[in-house]
Fold these 2 entries.
Entry 1:
Amino acid sequence: MVASGLFLASLIALALGKPTARNLKLHESRPSAPNGFSLVGSADSNRTLKLRLALAESNFSELERKLYDVSTPKSANYGKHLSKAEVQQLVAPGQDSIDAVNSWLKENDITAKTISSTGEWISFEVPVSKANDLFDADFSVFKHDDTGVEAIRTLSYSIPAELQGHLDLVHPTVTFPNPYSHLPVFQSPVKKTAEIQNFTAGAIPSSCSSTITPACLQAIYNIPTTAATESSNQLGVTGFIDQYANKKDLKTFLKKYRTDISSSTTFTLQTLDGGSNSQTGSKAGVEANLDIQYTVGVATGVPTTFISVGDDFQDGDLEGFLDVINALLDEDAPPSVLTTSYGQDESTISRALAVKLCNAYAQLGARGVSILFASGDGGVSGSQSASCSKFVPTFPSGCPYMTSVGATQGVNPETAADFSSGGFSNYWGVPDYQSDAVSTYLSALGKTNSGKYNASGRGFPDVSTQGVSFEVVVDGSVEAVDGTSCASPTFASIISLVNDKLVAAGKSPLGFLNPFLYSDGVAALNDITSGSNPGCNTNGFPAKKGWDPVTGLGTPDFKKLLTAVGL
Ligand SMILES: *[C@@H]1O[C@H](CO)[C@@H](O)[C@H](O)[C@H]1NC(C)=O
Ligand SMILES: *[C@@H]1O[C@H](CO)[C@@H](O)[C@H](O)[C@H]1NC(C)=O
Ligand SMILES: *[C@@H]1O[C@H](CO)[C@@H](O)[C@H](O)[C@H]1NC(C)=O
Ligand SMILES: *[C@@H]1O[C@H](CO)[C@@H](O)[C@H](O)[C@H]1NC(C)=O
């Protein structure tokens, strides 16, 4: 609660006389509205806008240094995760930033309220005319042609010179809403008829050649069926866009696919932003049911929480993406692993906003939370298959402080799923932990796809698992689902089970995974070297020996992971 209330408490009589001539500096802009949006006209000047300001973290570079320090196996501080208070102290805005913003608010007669416990985010309401004046903006009405979704946005805005370095961004301004809301990043459920592969390993049920069930994953990745023992080791599964996880369907799923455990095994519910979890059968969400069935049904005995984010967003058009992270940051004991199967194209979010969200993942990572996201289902064309001339990186997979999970299919050989999104961020450069892996890949790739992707960007995904033909129970019936949405919960479950063994041995959970995955973890991953992720009228990136932007470093082997973490 570092800065809560400070905006009132530290209001001091600064504004003697008129503010000096304004010196506004361009802060963010975009050349035009995103594809699909058209300008309708000026916004009503008296229309009220709810704006949010993001203040700069007081010492993010130190937070980042500590994140790597506690997440890198060879570091002396490996596993010594930061407390809530330690993280808050590094990110709560400094007094100089608070003072600068407060005096600007006062000069402009604005009353703001703090909306995050570190004081990083504040909000206030002003009419369009005043917002245009304050930020030298042109707030206008834009309409999305296909859906009719309307939004008031500006193509550029400026901030006073004296706030530079103190104010990260104003939102919503140049980031447009996702007209389709955050689409679940899985493809439409499809019933597969094709044979997937021939299995040679005797332990793998032959049924796995047509559909994937928990038993298949257990056999392919050496996942134990015995129950976890550590109640402190929690697994969080996020849900958005009114996707509800149905308990009756989970019971049916467990009765069918986990006859070895109690079919009453279930999850707990956490809600925010007015979220709920309707148990009406027809409201069961394919995405939510997939995510909960392949966590509760694979991470045997790990206490699992379904975090349902409603539509009453505090973060504007981020649709709860930031709210859920802030809610977990406020907890003293957040889950050790968090899996999310939603996302969007990186270009739909302004760089400043994307960085602010990514920095929130770093905070949670420093607390010892593994954050996993599905990489997307459009191959190199983005979160969903789309036409394009340049490759489209997805968000948040480009953020270096989380773990992006792609998809594979088959065994002998396990090969890349063609929809598995992967590529290189335009917002973040290559982090140290993957620089060797990425440069090895780019050398092997040669000129293929050159000019279509950003060779200096952070590469994704980091890892992968099976993602084709997962059997999911939805409103009583079994559907087969494809997507990286299958892969993120699967990888998260395996990490949760590794954490259970670590905690039982008196050690810390893995926390932010990537520095481990790209070093000691490599030996515990099955390298996937065939398949590719076509899109944008190309064959996409080919999977190759070592890391590749289709399957990452590869798929997990639970037994080898235990060895890699020293158990
Ligand atoms: C905004 O202004 C228009 C006329 O310009 C007026 O009709 C409308 O009532 C005003 N709305 C508010 C909320 O003041
Ligand atoms: C950030 O923290 C480090 C380590 O405590 C310190 O050396 C540095 O001066 C701090 N930077 C700022 C801007 O406060
Ligand atoms: C599977 O094995 C059968 C018999 O050995 C063979 O005819 C078939 O081509 C194989 N299928 C694949 C996909 O390898
Ligand atoms: C490519 O990535 C780098 C590193 O993140 C970034 O600075 C640069 O702006 C990107 N280039 C384009 C064209 O987006």
Entry 2:
Amino acid sequence: MQMKFSFLALLIGALFTFSSAEENLLDTSKLQMFVDELPDMPRIRAYELVHGVPKPRSLQIGMFKKKWKFHRDLPPTPVFAYGESKFTATVPGPTMEALQGVDTYVTWQNHLPPKHILPWDPTIPTARPHTNKGVPTVVHLHGAIHEPESDGNSNSWFTARFNETGPTWTKKTYHYPNQQHPGNLWYHDHAMGLTRVNLLAGLIGAYIIRDHTMEGPLGLPQGKEFDRPLIVFDRSFRSDGSIYMNSTGNNPTIHPQWQPEYFGDAIIVNGKAWPRLTVRRRKYRFRIINASNARFFSFFFTNGLGFIHVASDSAYLDRPVRANRILLGPSEITDIIVDFSLSKSNVAILANDAKYPYPTGDPVNEANSKVMKFTILPAREFDTSRVPRTLIKYPTVDLSSVSHTRYIAMYEYTTDADEPTHLYINGKPYEAPATETPKVGSTEVWYVINLTDDNHPLHIHLGLFKVLDQTKLADLEKFKDCMMKLNDAIKCHVDKQRGNRTEVPAHEKGWKNVFKMSPGTVTKIVVRFSYIHTNASYGFDPTKEPGYVYHCHILDHEDNAMMRPLKIIK
Ligand SMILES: *[C@@H]1O[C@H](CO)[C@@H](O)[C@H](O)[C@H]1NC(C)=O
Ligand SMILES: *[C@@H]1O[C@H](CO)[C@@H](O)[C@H](O)[C@H]1NC(C)=O
Ligand SMILES: *[C@@H]1O[C@H](CO)[C@@H](O)[C@H](O)[C@H]1NC(C)=O
Ligand SMILES: *[C@@H]1O[C@H](CO)[C@@H](O)[C@H](O)[C@H]1NC(C)=O
Ligand SMILES: *[C@@H]1O[C@H](CO)[C@@H](O)[C@H](O)[C@H]1NC(C)=O
Ligand SMILES: *[C@@H]1O[C@H](CO)[C@@H](O)[C@H](O)[C@H]1NC(C)=O
Ligand SMILES: [Cu+2]
């Protein structure tokens, strides 16, 4: 097996080695900023209205190869796009609008051609059709509470026309019950070893669950114009418009193509590079989804305009949190109100200054330091929307009901030259049998220990969690040495390693499904394997195969193989 892999590695290495001149990379600083209007992605109602009464809806959403204009002066780019038809498919895909308590059924259909548009790496654990034909895909609805068969398990992939399916594939039509609390979700590809390239190619979209009874009284800005998803990611391009991804790995003799983190130079919002939006002098709601592979964003307005956080990831906060800056990790969602009536100028640039990799990497440059431009109309508006003093308060977690404590350690493995080769959770590959087996309905405490130099956004499927605290490892090197030998947090005395606390920002103290695990820290989280707004049981059987997963949401890490099974038991 090993020999076969390294031979393949050499072969692919030879096929994929180009010099950067041959790559014909586009100098993104040549693209003028703020020339394209911010698109609002097509919206799909994820429920039927029968005589005004909401009823379940069945949808067919396809994945198509087509061309997409990312910028006025960039030739059309080959992409993979979600949509109800090839003609209407977009990058990002349509925004799906679901209603709390009303089921949505989606048959995700793969219409992709036999070959990928981006380089991929057969030496990491990767979905591979036997015929070598077709791009494996599978859709995960991030933040959703639903049955395992509809969770988009990485091994439940399928190729065009379901011609081939992965080992855990069970059904064509996914069921999203939407019984959970209202909030922001997103759907994206999750195929084993291909998540990073399938997302880079364009397979992402927003999904909102609304609950008029709970949300109506809040009085927040609403309607298509004033309540908008913003899906942000970074991409690099070649001069012919194609998406550029380095096809040479950082350790090409081990992994011909895999690199530990993808960074692009152009910042794309709703499918346009550095777009512009003309806004009225009033409040707007922006649901910002960070769909970068690895780039963190630290957003702020150049004219000093602040934000008010109302929700993070899929859940509302108890009360609004004012801030002048937002740090968003990959796959995190922040939901903010911006009151443009408070702007002293008529232009506000949304900017970013997060180093990459975050927090110790390169400083941003001109191109990736700007996100988008808002032009604010001068006329004052009568604005009936408001930001209430309290938002939605969920029952507090009873820590005395915690039934299990787990230690989750993040490892990065490197060559002698310190180049990352792969990353594991708890020192185990994905294929090793599940070790995290929470009981349905239970509450657990997890200590997530980051032994690497990177900030890993940890994402748990099905469960939601609250961060209780984050502390520095008192003696990182000693503890790391011990963990490398024993891989056992208790034997390595993690309890004696609780150093100084790091600050958990107020807007991240609510229910989350992703949290940034800082380097050299222990983060204590309380995880609920039930709904957070009601004591009702899930209404589906979460113990079924293929179960769930939890993983790092830096896609390049998740693919190689910072992901573990999560098996719910009775
Ligand atoms: C479908 O799969 C079969 C083998 O399972 C293969 O022979 C055939 O070429 C595939 N067809 C397409 C269109 O990929
Ligand atoms: C691609 O990655 C390789 C290996 O890390 C590196 O040597 C090369 O400079 C990269 N190419 C570009 C255009 O960045
Ligand atoms: C987006 O997510 C990536 C990957 O998790 C992360 O590195 C980056 O900081 C995030 N950016 C923002 C603005 O949150
Ligand atoms: C904790 O913080 C104190 C005061 O800032 C500092 O003196 C001390 O060195 C810190 N301890 C550790 C283990 O980082
Ligand atoms: C893990 O630790 C490294 C450095 O010790 C840090 O940069 C990184 O942010 C941490 N990751 C997470 C997810 O906290
Ligand atoms: C759930 O049950 C607990 C204890 O039985 C109770 O304290 C709590 O209020 C209930 N939560 C809801 C949302 O009904
Ligand atoms: Cu990671």
